[in-house]
Amino acid sequence: MSKRLQHVLVVTPERVVYDEEARFVLVPGSEGDLGILPGHTPLITTLRIGLVRIRKDVAESGFVISGGLLEIRNNQVTVLTGAAETPEDIDLARAREARKRAETRLAAQGPSYDSDRARAALMRAITRLRVVGK
Ligand code: ATP
């Protein structure tokens, strides 16, 4: 009989954000979105900034992640990420400020300018704002 559930773990350095059985997981892989069903073949890959969606039964959970690593092994899906927020966790004002800061940095390119860092900060802020629909 095929497995109908898989164990899903979403972990940040601060906390375990999700630790449950689920039917389906969609992750933002570096090379594109990746849909994962139970019994997936073992895999390790990198993740980009984006939305992780987890379907349990009818209920669905979503987290904005700041990129990271995905491991699939023994019907367990593990997402290791620097930060993960549900839409309710997202502080709109903070994300707007972060977006403004990143845009200013990208435009100014001042001393000790790090374009990858500025772009990543902008992507995090834009993704947070997109998820809350702002
Ligand atoms: P900021 O510049 O506002 O710190 P950031 O993108 O640099 O934003 P991260 O390094 O991705 O922040 O995250 C640091 C911590 O702050 C994580 O725990 C993350 O979940 C949380 N965090 C960052 N921005 C927000 C936000 N807009 N709403 C809620 N939590 C946030």
Number of H/I helices: 2
Q: Which percent bin holds the helix content? A: 25-40%
CATH class of the largest domain: Mainly Beta
The molecules bound to the chains, other than polymers, are: adenosine-5'-triphosphate
Element-level helix/strand string: EEEEEEEEHH
Shape: elongated
The name of the CATH architecture of the largest domain is Sandwich
What is the number of beta strands?
8
Low-confidence stretches: none
- The separation of the N and C termini measures 44 Å
Structural class: alpha+beta
Please report which band the strand proportion falls in: under 5%, 5-15%, 15-25%, 25-35%, 35-45% or over 45%.
Answer: 35-45%
Mean pLDDT: 94
Number of domains: 2
If you consult CATH, what is the topology of the largest domain?
ATP Synthase, domain 1
Largest sheet: 8 strands, mixed
Rg (C-alpha, Å): 16 Å
CATH homology-level superfamily of the largest domain? F0F1 ATP synthase delta/epsilon subunit, N-terminal
Which properties best describe this structure?
ATP Synthase, domain 1; 2 domains; Single alpha-helices involved in coiled-coils or other helix-helix interfaces; 134 residues; binds adenosine-5'-triphosphate
